[in-house]
Amino acid sequence: MVVNFKVFKKCSPNNMITLYMNRRDFVDSITQVEPIDGIVVLDDDYVRQNRKIFVQLVCNFRYGREDDEMIGLRFQKELTLVSQQVCPPQKQDIQLTKMQERLLKKLGSNAYPFVMQMPPSSPASVVLQQKASDESQPCGVQYFVKIFTGDSDCDRSHRRSTINLGIRKVQYAPTKEGIQPCTVVRKDFLLSPGELELEVTLDKQLYHHGEKISVNICVRNNSNKVVKKVKAMVQQGVDVVLFQNGQFRNTIAFMETSEGCPLNPGSSLQKVMYLVPTLVANCDRAGIADARDAFGIIVSYAVKVKLFLGALGGELCAELPFILMHPKPSRKAQLEAEGSIEA
C-alpha cells in the first residue's frame, strides 16, 4: 500500500535555508493545542561555518488600518511566543513524528527537526474582511514560523537569510450539543393595560457555517398596541480587546415580514423565520470576521428579533446568543485549505 503525504516547502531568498512542514493548520481543542513540528535543511556552506539557526513562533496582531499609520505610530504588534535554537542542536528530547522521521532519512545529515508548543492562551487566527479595493494588510491575528541565522535569537534577522511561513491556529465545532436557546421578553406601556410578549427559540445552540437557522417566534399581544412588522437578523459581534471602545456589530443575514400583521390587541402570532449567514453573501463588506477568539479579537454571534409597533409604540427586541463554527474537515479537505494559506 502506497501512502502519499503533502509537504509544504519554503526556501530563504539566498537558498541557504529550507523549511519543510507537513501541515499549516494547528487545532486548538481548548485543553491543548497541536504542537508545531517541521524540518530545517541547511546548505553545506552554513554547516561548515557552524552557523546558528533559530526557529521562532511569531504572532502578528494588526488592530488598525495600514493607511492610517504615521511616523512613530503603528497599529501593529509583533510578539515572539516561542524561540529555540535548531542548529547547532541543543540537548533536548524531541519526540519525532512519522513525517519527520521519513524526511530526516531522505534529506540527510544537514536536516534538523524542531517541535514548538503554542501557548494555550494565545488567540485563534482571525482576519477582518476588507473591501475588494483595499490592498493594505488586513486587521486580525496571524501566525508565522520564522527561521533565521544570527549570533543569538535576539539578533535582527536579514531578509535574504530569513524564512517566514504563515500558519493558523484554528478551532472547530464541538461534537456535543449545548442547551437549546430560548428567551422571553415583555413590554408594558404607559397608561395602557396588559403587556406585549415576545418569545424566541432556536432549534439548537450550535450551527455550522452555511447551515439554515430556524428562528421560532411567538408573539402574544395583551396590550392595546398593534404590531406592524417582524424582523429577524443574525448579528456578528467583533471585540478588539486592545481598545476600550473596540466593539462593533455587523448584521450578516436578515429577513423581515408583514405576514400575519397587523397584529391587533388580544391576538397572537406564531412564525418560523429561516436565516442563512454566509461569508459569500457578505464578501463586499468590510469588518466581517473570518474566524472566532484573549488578547486578540473575540467573535460572537446572536439572533435578534424586532417587533415594530409604529412611530408612537416603538419596538420590542429579543436577543439570543448562539455558536457558529466550522465542523472539523476531513484530512484531504484540511490539506487543500492549508495549501491556500498565504505564504
Features:
Arrestin_C-like, Arrestin C-terminal-like domain-containing protein, elongated, 6-stranded mixed beta sheet, 4 helices, single chain, Arrestin, 5-stranded mixed beta sheet, mainly beta, 343 residues
Question: How would you describe this protein?
Answer:
The protein has helices spanning 44-48, 98-107, 310-313, 331-339, and strands at residues 8-11, 17-21, 25-27, 36-42, 53-62, 76-87, 111-116, 126-127, 140-149, 162-170, 182-189, 192-202, 206-208, 213-221, 229-240, 247-257, 268-275, 297-308, 315-325. The protein is mainly β and 343 residues long. The relative contact order is 0.17. The strands form four sheets. Strands 3, 5, 6, 8, 9 and 10 form a six-stranded mixed β-sheet that branches.
Low-confidence stretches: none
Q: Which class best fits the helix and strand makeup? A: mainly beta
- Taking all Cα atoms into account, the compactness measure Rg is 26 Å
Spell the H/E element sequence. EEEEHEEHEEEEEEEEEEEEHEH
Mean pLDDT: 83
Q: How much of the sequence is in beta strands?
A: 35-45%
Large-scale geometry: elongated
Q: Give the distance, in angstroms, between the N- and C-terminal Cα atoms.
A: 32 Å
Relative helix content: under 10%
Number of contiguous helices: 4
Main beta sheet, described?
6 strands, mixed
Task: Say how many strands there are.
Answer: 19
Pfam families: Arrestin_C, Arrestin_N
Domain Arrestin C-terminal-like: 192-329
GO biological process, one term: signal transduction
InterPro entries: Arrestin, Arrestin-like_C, Arrestin-like_N, Arrestin_C-like, Arrestin_CS, Arrestin_N, Ig_E-set
